[in-house]
## 1
Amino acid sequence: GNSVTQMEGPVTLSEEAFLTINCTYTATGYPSLFWYVQYPGEGLQLLLKATKADDKGSNKGFEATYRKETTSFHLEKGSVQVSDSAVYFCALPSGGSYIPTFGRGTSLIVHP
Amino acid sequence: NAGVTQTPKFQVLKTGQSMTLQCAQDMNHNSMYWYRQDPGMGLRLIYYSASEGTTDKGEVPNGYNVSRLNKREFSLRLESAAPSQTSVYFCASTEGMNTGELFFGEGSRLTVL
């Protein structure tokens, strides 16, 4: 079935630094791809998504481009803030059942 | 603006005790899910309900049972809790199985001693 692999964390950055969190996928066809964010003590919430190849999803200054050539959906932000400290999950539907499958999550810690 | 509501938020059990985690959504979603989250393991699907009246096993169903009580409610039961079930449990819902966008509850932290 479909699967995603995320870079391991934690990723530790200073405020205003550039962020990249890598995500690569294995999939049949071209399913929608998602990034979820989990703030401390909360459930996950959708951050952004891309529904087809070459699409760019964006929200709250974060961006990710659906690249079929490299089977990647890397998350980027040009200038992180302390409030971006959270765990980020890459996800996609797992084949014909459409059940969302998640990566293991990448913890981001941003220092002032 | 409740979304997905889980109860209880915290629970401590002794090995062998039973308990039920409750989940309710007010978004008229058809599909509901139970995940567990463990350090370094991401989220793993326990059970899901594609629509009212149906339930199916996910990746890690052993030791759990579920009930889709109605369209709003989806409960998870531990019949005989084990320390390996110590985890944070999340309920989630989607409008339909092929939308992919999940709405999560805030989680239930369960400790089994």
Note: Chain B touches chain A at residues 4, 33, 40-43, 45, 48, 58, 90, 92, 94, 97-107 (CB under 8 Å).
## 2
Amino acid sequence: IAGITQAPTSQILAAGRRMTLRCTQDMRHNAMYWYRQDLGLGLRLIHYSNTAGTTGKGEVPDGYSVSRANTDDFPLTLASAVPSQTSVYFCASSVLAGVNEQFFGPGTRLTVL
Amino acid sequence: AQKITQTQPGMFVQEKEAVTLDCTYDTSDPSYGLFWYKQPSSGEMIFLIYQGSYDQQNATEGRYSLNFQKARKSANLVISASQLGDSAMYFCAMRGNYGGSQGNLIFGKGTKLSVKP
């Protein structure tokens, strides 16, 4: 693989269920990010990780958690999904936090009913 | 607070003509970076061009150029010789510093560009 992969591509989920969105990069980038994209709102930061072992909250972190056990993986967990979490979720990475462009994964389209 | 504003929800351009997509920003940081991304209908986010706040020259990448006017806090994207494949959403973004992230991106709401044959 090259770049960032996300899984699943899409998912329909019942409200109240737990869900983990997976993100893996093979570029050995230190920084990783999760964004959600909603129509008319652009992309908003959910959580970030400047380096393996550290995470932080972004603009819209409520209802989401992340972990960064190693450099390559940055899963996003919805502990108890709600319909307002229906969105397209993008994982991104950059060589270092604050250094030039971020590379994005293909996205996960999540629908919570 | 940092903010990106894109005032054009949609734009039309004739194939082979140039088009300018507007972006204004607000930040109190003396050092910042500005980005443009393209999102085609397939959904992926594609990096186009980057401008650093201390860069003396406007950034260019092939048919893309960034018209950076620091005093006006604008970073407009210029696409020359538009092609049908340029039809997409275009997002302006600024490197933010949300909490301790040091490098998250703050996005505008986007401009949908449609290229007419």
Note: The mean pLDDT of chain A is 93.
